[in-house]
Amino acid sequence: MTYSMQAPYNNPQYSYQMPQKPNTGAPVLGLMTVGALGGGTVGYLRNRTMISDDGKINDSFAKKVYENISKIDSNDNKTYKQCCAIADKIDKVKNKLELKKLFDKNKDGAEALFQGKKEKVEKFLETVSSDNIKATKEKIKQGINAINDMYIQSSKNIITKCWDKDLKEFVKPDKMDSRIFDAVKNTKTTQAWKKACKYGGITAIILGGAAIAYNFITQPRIR
User: Fold this and answer.
1) Are 50 and 58 in contact (CB under 8 A)?
2) pLDDT in tens, the chain (223 residues)
3) Which one of 14, 65, 175, 182 is most buried, counting C-beta atoms within 10 A?
4) Among residues 200, 219, 217, 220, which one has the least CA distance to residue 31?
5) Cα gap 217→221, rounded to integer Å
C-alpha cells in the first residue's frame, strides 16, 4: 500500500501567530499631551482674568499688582516690605525689648504705623510693659493690616482705572505712567499662565496615569 506524502497546507484554523505587544507609548504620550493642553486651556480660561464679570478684583491679584507697582518707587517698596515683615514676626515677640528690635530692623514700617513720625514710635515703646505686651501686639497687627488694606485698595483703584469692562481687557488710561500700566497688565498675564501650567500639569498626570493603567489591563497575557 502506498501512502502519499503531501506538504501541509496553510489552514487558517490552525495557523499560529506570535502575540504582538501593543504600542503603549503613543496613547500614553498622546493622552498626557491632551491632558497638558486641555488642562492648561481649562486653567487659563478659568484664570485668564483676576477680575469677575461684575468688576470685583481678586485680593491676591491686587496684592501682587501692588508689589510690582511699589517697585517703581523704592521708598514705597521698602515700607511695604517692612510692614509685611512686622506682620509676619509680631506673634513671636515676647517682650518690650524684642518689639524694639523688630521696630529698629523695620523702621520705615514701624513709622508707617504712626504717620511717619519717628518720635511717636519711641514714645509708644516707652509705654510697653509685660502687662500690656499682648494687647499691644494685637493693636500693632490691626494697624499693619489697616495699612496693607489701604495699599491693596490703592492697587484695586489703579486696576479698575485700567480695566475696560466691555472689551474685557486692560487699556492704558491717558496720563498714566506706562510703567504702572505695564505692571498691572504683566501681572495679569503672569498670574494667569502660572495657574494654567499648574492645571495642565495635574491633568496630564491624571490622564497619563489612566492611559498606563488601561494599557496594562488590556494587553494580552502569555501563559
Assistant:
1) yes
2) 444 444 444 444 444 455 555 554 445 444 444 444 444 444 444 445 588 888 899 999 999 999 999 999 888 889 999 999 999 999 999 999 999 999 999 999 999 999 889 999 999 999 999 999 999 999 999 999 999 999 999 999 999 999 998 988 999 999 999 999 999 999 966 555 454 444 444 444 444 444 444 444 445 544 4
3) 65
4) 200
5) 10
Q: List all residues 6 or more positions away from 222 whose beta carbon is below 8 Å from its beta carbon.
A: 19
Q: Are 133 and 96 in contact (CB under 8 A)?
A: yes
**What is the grid cell recorded at 153?**
485698595
Following DSSP, what letter does each residue of 156-195 receive, concatenated?
Answer: HHHHHHHEETTTTEE-PPTT--HHHHHHHHHHHHHHHHHH
Amino acid identity, residue 197?
Answer: C
